[in-house]
Specification:
By secondary structure, this protein is mainly alpha-helical. Helix 2 packs across helix 3. Helix content is 70%, strand content 0%. 4% of the residues are buried. The protein is elongated and about 45 Å long. The longest helix is centred in the middle third of the chain and has 28 residues.
Length: 70
Protein backbone atom coordinates (compact mmCIF):
# COMPACT_ATOMS: atom_id res chain seq x y z
CA UNK A 1 0.00 0.00 0.00
CA UNK A 2 1.33 3.44 -0.90
CA UNK A 3 2.19 5.82 1.92
CA UNK A 4 0.08 8.97 1.86
CA UNK A 5 0.78 10.15 5.39
CA UNK A 6 4.22 11.64 5.96
CA UNK A 7 6.34 10.48 8.87
CA UNK A 8 7.69 13.89 9.92
CA UNK A 9 4.40 15.67 10.70
CA UNK A 10 3.23 12.69 12.75
CA UNK A 11 6.49 12.69 14.69
CA UNK A 12 6.13 16.45 15.31
CA UNK A 13 2.56 15.87 16.55
CA UNK A 14 3.78 13.20 18.95
CA UNK A 15 6.59 15.48 20.18
CA UNK A 16 4.13 18.35 20.63
CA UNK A 17 2.08 16.03 22.86
CA UNK A 18 5.01 15.18 25.10
CA UNK A 19 6.64 12.15 23.44
CA UNK A 20 10.28 13.21 23.50
CA UNK A 21 11.79 9.91 22.35
CA UNK A 22 9.81 7.68 19.99
CA UNK A 23 11.07 4.69 18.05
CA UNK A 24 10.79 4.89 14.27
CA UNK A 25 8.80 1.66 14.15
CA UNK A 26 6.29 3.15 16.62
CA UNK A 27 5.73 6.13 14.33
CA UNK A 28 5.49 3.80 11.33
CA UNK A 29 2.87 1.70 13.13
CA UNK A 30 0.80 4.81 13.89
CA UNK A 31 1.08 5.97 10.27
CA UNK A 32 -0.06 2.53 9.06
CA UNK A 33 -3.03 2.55 11.44
CA UNK A 34 -4.00 6.08 10.38
CA UNK A 35 -3.79 5.11 6.70
CA UNK A 36 -5.96 2.04 7.21
CA UNK A 37 -8.49 3.99 9.26
CA UNK A 38 -8.68 6.75 6.66
CA UNK A 39 -9.21 4.16 3.93
CA UNK A 40 -12.00 2.42 5.86
CA UNK A 41 -13.75 5.70 6.69
CA UNK A 42 -13.47 6.91 3.10
CA UNK A 43 -15.01 3.68 1.77
CA UNK A 44 -17.89 3.97 4.25
CA UNK A 45 -18.43 7.64 3.39
CA UNK A 46 -18.44 6.76 -0.31
CA UNK A 47 -21.21 4.20 0.28
CA UNK A 48 -23.25 6.87 2.06
CA UNK A 49 -22.63 9.31 -0.77
CA UNK A 50 -23.72 6.82 -3.42
CA UNK A 51 -26.80 5.90 -1.39
CA UNK A 52 -27.76 9.59 -1.39
CA UNK A 53 -27.22 9.63 -5.18
CA UNK A 54 -24.41 12.15 -4.96
CA UNK A 55 -20.87 12.19 -6.32
CA UNK A 56 -19.24 14.48 -3.75
CA UNK A 57 -18.32 13.17 -0.30
CA UNK A 58 -19.36 15.77 2.25
CA UNK A 59 -18.24 16.54 5.77
CA UNK A 60 -21.43 14.92 7.07
CA UNK A 61 -20.66 11.71 5.16
CA UNK A 62 -17.25 11.55 6.83
CA UNK A 63 -18.70 12.31 10.28
CA UNK A 64 -21.35 9.62 9.86
CA UNK A 65 -18.75 7.10 8.68
CA UNK A 66 -16.57 7.92 11.69
CA UNK A 67 -19.56 7.44 13.99
CA UNK A 68 -20.13 3.93 12.61
CA UNK A 69 -16.40 3.19 12.53
CA UNK A 70 -16.10 3.50 16.33
Amino acid sequence: MAEYISWSPIRRLMKHNGAVIVARDAVNELVDWMSQSAETITKSALKLTKHAKRKKITKNDILMAIKYFK
